[in-house]
Amino acid sequence: MKNCKPCIRHPFQIRETLLKPEKIIRLCCKILHRDYEKVISRSRNQELVEARFMIMTLLRNDLSLRLSLKQIANHFSCKDHTTVINALYKNDIYCETIPEYNQLYYRLHLDIYGHDKYYKYSYNSEI
User: Fold this and answer.
1) 46-81: b or e for each residue (b if 16 or more CB lie within 10 Å)?
2) Which residues span the domain enclosing 88?
3) What pLDDT digit, counting tens, does each position of 91-115 carry?
4) What beta strand segments (E) does 7-85 contain?
5) Which stretches of 1-127 are assigned E, i.e. beta strand?
6) Contact call for residues 1 and 7 (beta carbons, < 8 A)
7) How far is CA 48 from the centre of its chain?
8) 14 inside domain
9) What is the CATH classification number for the domain harbouring 39?
């Protein structure tokens, strides 16, 4: 599949290298201007919590990784699968109700994947 070119059967750009979860988390922290150690910590600072929500959602929705809730939780300090479930739920709510949050998550998604083909929330670029 490495040599496959975009076509009718595969209309998307196939990544040459798959990003590992650790790399995605570090890239997200860099894009969001957050310290990696703080993001994976147990801090309840609102900015760090929101960054965690976004990153956990990106990891869960990445079809090439196919990570379970437990596997995602293991990348964050002392988190279990229910924390990830809550993050996915809150990310959905925030994207639907807070335009600025939606815009930030959309841009993060674009920066990590290079396209918005699988972005599931409506996005208004006029914000």
Assistant:
1) eebebbbbbbbbbbbbbeebebebeebbebbeebee
2) 32-113
3) 999 999 999 999 999 999 888 888 7
4) none
5) none
6) no
7) 14
8) no
9) 1.10.1750
Is residue 99, in this structure, part of any structural domain at all?
yes
Residue type (1 letter), 24: I
pLDDT at position 81: 93
Read off the tokens for 16.
């040459």
- Residue 99 pLDDT: 94
And the tokens for 11? 């209309």
Q: Which residue has the tokens 């750009």?
A: 13
Can you read off the two tokens belonging to residue 35?
Answer: 């310290």
Q: Using alpha carbons, list the distances in angstroms from residue 76 to 41, 58, 110.
A: 7, 14, 23
Residues of the chain predicted below pLDDT 70:
1-17, 118, 123-127
